[in-house]
Amino acid sequence: MKDFAGKFAVVTGGGTGMGRELARQLIAEGCSVAMCDVSMKNMERTIALAQADGVPQGARITPHLADVSDEAQLIAFRDAAMAAHDMDRLHLLFNNAGIGGGGSMLNTDRSEWERTFNVCWGGVYFGVRTFLPAMVAADEAHIINTSSVNGFWASLGPHISHTAYAAAKFAVKGFTEALVTDLRRTAPHIKCSVVMPGHIGTDIAANSRKVIANTEDDVLSAEELVRARARMSSAGVDTAALPDEAIQAMVAEGARRFRDDAPMSAAEAATVILNGVKADRWRILVGDDAHALDAMVRADPEQAYEESFYQRMATEAGWRLNVAETRT
Predict the structure, then answer these.
(1) Residues 298, 301, 304, 309, CA torsion sign
(2) Is pLDDT of 326 > 70?
(3) DSSP character string of 6-70
(4) What CA–CA distance (Å, rounded) separates 319 from 55?
(5) Cβ distance 225 to 244 under 8 Å?
(6) How far apart are CA 192 and CA 181, in angstroms?
(7) Which residues contact residue 245 at a Cβ distance below 8 angstroms, ignoring those fewer than 6 apart?
(8) Per-residue model confidence as pLDDT tens digits over 172-192
(9) Using CA atoms, how far apart are residues 155 and 152, in angstroms rounded to an integer?
């Protein structure tokens, strides 16, 4: 698929981050987009930005509320999207939606752990299940599943538990790699790619908290403040004398730094992904840090979870723990 003009795409998590930028760039190329998210407000902002960019004649973008971890909601999204665009086939499926959280099997609430896993893995699995028949009906199609560098390195560093997100991203990677052979045998006109970004400047830290807490409020609840203190304490921060306002400010600043101090923007990441699809690459690493970390893990997998490995990684791959830890 060398260009996207006249094609029809689905983007999950289109309200912010890479999903927003994928939608904007697809629309700019003349591709119609149906996006879903749990926040209509965020999707309306995506649409406003796309319209400001300029929407080519014949292209459309529509927003749909859906939680990707709920198969029934994804099916309803599919049916509404197909009807809104008067389409019976789909050319591009970007299973992009994801959240962080669920760090520890011991110290994290089980509901948060499973919420994170179900969005990050279930959203991809249900997405493929739901939209695959419409892709079979197309003359050519491409599935793009977003994993992470945490799909080949299950860590944020030696002092942070990171089990739910990493497990989900490993699942996405393995599933997509297996799809390469499956689709080649059963539906050769459908291609697939696994996307593995490094540190990309998005609002995943702030948005993950909102999804897990089922809120759009920027202010931490009393329960969230308790959890934030516990996370900071486990990372070696003395929070005993800090008022709640200081904890709130530190969480907000961490999310801001994760977005604004990243080595690659969400827009740059979206361009890398779309270029990878056009080049028919099944494996798309996004960011210099992703390439460096991939090489390091392959070269020395037995040491990948030792503190000395992280110290080398911080130098060679530019990975910053004090920023990365805000993802959980």
Answers:
(1) negative
(2) no
(3) T-EEEEETTTSHHHHHHHHHHHHTT-EEEEEES-HHHHHHHHHHHHHH-PPTT--EEEEE--TT-
(4) 37
(5) yes
(6) 10
(7) none
(8) 999 999 999 999 999 999 999
(9) 9
**153 Cβ neighbours under 8 A, 6+ residues apart:** 293, 297, 304
Rounded to whole angstroms, how far apart are CA atoms 133 and 135?
A: 5
Check whether 328 has a pLDDT greater than 50.
no
81 vs 64: CA distance, rounded Å: 8
Which of these ranges, 232-236, 265-269, 322-326, has the smallest mean pLDDT?
322-326
64 Cβ contact list (under 8 Å, min separation 6)? 34, 35, 36, 77, 80, 81, 84
This prediction's pTM: 0.92
How many other CB atoms sit within 10 Å of the CB of residue 231? Answer: 21
Residue 217 and residue 223: Cα distance in Å, rounded?
14
Q: Using the CB atoms, write b or e for 298-328: b if 16+ within 10 Å.
A: eeeeeebeeeebbeebeeebebbeebbbbbb
Report which residue type is found at 245: E
Active site residues: 165
* Rounded Cα gap, residues 303 and 273, in angstroms: 30
**Token pair for 189:** 């006109």
- Cα 267–Cα 202–Cα 283 angle in degrees, nearest 5: 65
Tell me the C-alpha distance between 144 and 12, whole Å.
11
